[in-house]
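From the shared-data thread, chain only:
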Amino acid sequence: MIRFLAVWTLTTLLTGCLPPRHLKTQVPATVVQNALQTQFDSVPPPVDGSITVAVYSFTDKTGQRKSMGNSQMASFSSAVTQGAEVYLIQALQTVGQGRWFRVVERVGLDNVSRERQLIRQMREAHEGPNAKQLPPMMFAGILLEGGIVGYDSATQTGGAGAKIFGIGPMIQYSVDTAYISLRAVSVQTGEVLLTVNVQKTIFSYGVQVVALKFINGNLDALEAEMGVVANEPVTFAVKTATEAAVLELIEQGTRQKLWQYQYPPVARPNPTPVTAGIVGKTKPWF
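Structure, as tokens:
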């Protein structure tokens, strides 16, 4: 029994030292960078300047809820984020060092309209009918639609473990898959110009060490467990898939000659300056 108490006390001391090192009460906020920032910076700019696009929504279309472990119940929280348009807008603004797209505000269009109306009313109240008018709002030639169209949980699971004299490690893993769909639509004709589908795997794993020992003449059993579980954030996976969809959208548009890359010009005595605009101005979607 003395041996059992000594081992139990040592285990308690070791496990009691873990929480202060790994669990912090105050964690500083960090700025979330693009996961594909290196690929974003390497994209050459378009030949004829930035393309004006609009994003109204880019939401969860799966309707799934989070599962409660091994049970068949689901919680009230959604399985994926409900505001993925913020990631799409950020990706559009930063791809190619911000030289590819100009994004107009449409998610909060009602707020913008009310604020413009308030400005007009205040100007007319103080300056009269001849008050300075607001400039017209910018409109887009391309509308970007889509969202998170699928989320499959536990598409692949497995594990491995081994014990010697009741002591040994155990490893378990699980794989989820998220699907993103993005399409470019001509505002003038309503034609769907491009469609991109991207999938992103989400990995989760757990490592556990279990020790089971019989002491005191095999009358008392000592069992100790120690493990760690790591889950790849679903929101970060959705963000990464959205960035990959933007890169693929640019690549598909280049192959279909909707726009083209601006490669470094050949050295000339008097290089011709690049004109502003969009490739294919005669196309019906612009």
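Confidence is low (pLDDT under 50) at residues 3-8, 13-20, 265-286.
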